[in-house]
Amino acid sequence: MSTYFEDILSQPQELQNFLCYYKTDEMLQRFRALGKLPIKKVIFSGMGSSHYCALTASLLLKRGGIDNEVISAGELYYFQRCTIREGVLLCLISQSGESGEIVKLIQELPDNVTVVGITNHPESTLGKRSDYLFPLFVSDEAAVTTRTYLASCGVTLLLAAALQGQCVEKKVEELQDIFTRMDAYLSTAPELTARWDEFMQPMGSVSVIGRGFSMPSVEAGALFFRETVRFPALDFDGAEFRHGPMEMVDENFYGVVFAPSGAAYEQSIKLAKDIAAKGGHVLMVTDREEESGATENLLPVILPQIPEEYLMFFQILPLQLLANAAAARRGIEAGQFRWGSKITKEG
Q1: Domain residue spans of the chain
Q2: Which CATH architecture has domain 3-184?
């Protein structure tokens, strides 16, 4: 069993432990104080999976009428620092708290900029600069992120609730239920993964496709494939895939299409089936049991039905498991970096 596989299986319990800290009066008071700030705009920024973990929170805030954006810390530092003005709440996310771009950005920030810090290391550069610090309270991974990514997703969801004046305690309870269900799902991981892995052979690259609340899993999932399997993994908005990238599809195409219940369910199901009809191999990740029928080129992956704001906690699991299996087939020690390191300080 690889260390990466152990990390995947550890996620539900680690996330339950993380939530124990977020039920304390100290943390709940911190959220309440944040919700009272006069905010004109929220900027979420990080690198890698710390960049993508805020995409669901961003969508929820936009639906709630709160102006915000998600941007990589590199782009923010080098090209868009001018957007960090008075009234902006800057939410910086870095599991180590020492990512090169985050540190550079902090060094250039005026003292009057309010910083929310999400990190697993409160003693870090980010932790020390944070006006509102939200630690992750999970064990560090050796390399490729698993639990720190999902804990970051959890914190950003709680932040979104607090900024909209919603009950954070209720969100914590809902997350507890989600993590319990994750644990049950992962208990079947070996048998599920074997079928997916066999279907996706001889995969030499993968395209990960989705829309809306699936976008965190699209972006982070493709990243995890690139890091773990060390081959090309492309990430696509489902609508954009129709505008040109469909030309890639032939018998050598391997893709993962997210098709959950929601606004774009029918479009996503049709996209998966259209790719399969053109000869591509598709894992179709959905929560609709009526779509469980497999064909030669299409294999459904059925997830439990959960509220769309929590999709990222379940949707990432098949990608993590498949990446682990694909790495093993290629003789790669899953979860270990070849050229990089856990903390990237060159930004």
Answers
A1: 3-184, 188-329
A2: 3-Layer(aba) Sandwich (3.40)
Identify whether 245 is preceded by a cis peptide bond (ω within 30 of 0): no
Q: What's the CATH superfamily of 188-329?
A: Glucose-6-phosphate isomerase like protein; domain 1 (3.40.50.10490)
Whole-number Å distance between alpha carbons of 4 and 142: 9
| Structure tokens belonging to residue 78 | 């080098």
Q: Which of 30, 32, 34, 59 is nearest to 44 (CA)?
A: 59
pLDDT by residue (tens digit) across 285-297? Answer: 999 999 989 999 9
Tell me whether the CATH fold assigned to 3-184 matches the one assigned to 188-329. yes
CA 63/CA 81 separation, integer angstroms: 25
**Strand, helix or coil for residue 113:** coil
Residues 39, 289: Cα–Cα separation, whole Å: 43
pTM over 0.70: yes
> What count of Cα atoms within 13 Å lies in the side-chain half-sphere of residue 229?
26
CA distances, 281 to each of 5, 75, 300 (Å): 24, 35, 11
Instruction: Give residue-wise pLDDT tens across range 242-293.
Output: 999 999 999 999 999 999 999 999 999 999 999 999 999 999 999 999 998 9
